[in-house]
Amino acid sequence: MEIKEYIDSGIIESYLLGLATPEEELELQQLRRVFPELNVEIAITERKLEKLAFEDAVEPPALAWDNIIQRITWEETNRDYGRTRKKDSSNIHIHMAPRKDDLITVHKYWKYAFICIFILSKLFLIGAIIYGLKYYRELKSQPAQTPTQQEQTR
Amino acid sequence: MESIYIAHRILPATLTKVPVHISEDYLVAQLIAGDHEARTFVYDKYSPALYGVILQVIPEEERANELLVKLFVHIFRNAKNFTTSGHFTLFGWLMKTTREFVVQAIPPSISSSVNTKIPILRPKENALMLFMKNLPADVQRIFELCYQKGLSQKAAANATGLPEAEVSRLLRSSMVELRKFMQK
Q: Of A44, A127, B41, B137, which residue is the least packed, with the fewest Cβ within 10 Å?
């Protein structure tokens, strides 16, 4: 039978290990719609590979799990602060752990705060220059007046 | 169902003795919902096997750890992809995703310098070594290039000077051998 030959050619193993070319993978995806026995075989092979992979299992360092949780929680807290915190009250993470590189991570809102501060500072600067010049011109236009005279003119 | 996770968390020793079978559909649904206990369960169950797969290609511990972290963050964030991936078991999807991550993470310096032998640090007597030992030399070479060094079939053809069709044939025959190997 043709499909049996196809299965025996190792295409499924190749696909599951990510060794198949895109063309081979496409062919397999198309064929499995037509031949249900291919799906059965894929399921069986997945279980076999699982068994094989567990033979070569290596316990990862405990620190890895902490890092994963830290990154995930950091993201989710940012996304939906209130909900995650309530739901996951058993995990309290302080998101101030220094990163390995020279960068720091701050909340997105700081971006808008910095933009506002920047624009405000420019506005004040422009205002200071305009009114400063105005004041300077006024001083210049009345050079002879003494403070008492100024008071009188007002 | 929640209580199973909790029991596992508190009493990990009992789990190693008594295998707990929970419905994978339920587990996946919880995983997609972002449930913490489901994530813990999946990590505890699958991380050693997937870490082993990473170490087969990336033997440096620090880089392998970093990749494992990235991998699980990706898995937890994109758990819903499993439902559309066409895989039948969660592990099938995890394995495929791990291989994709590993191949992407191989620095080009390693994959281009074909002759540098990557030592597999641990475990020393593993199933992969056992499988590779019995392959014919030319098949073994191609399998090593494609699986352990993460080369595409085309890149392996360039590296060895063999025609692409021949690389494809040799790689496929290694898969046939793997099929037989797993049958045992």
A: B137
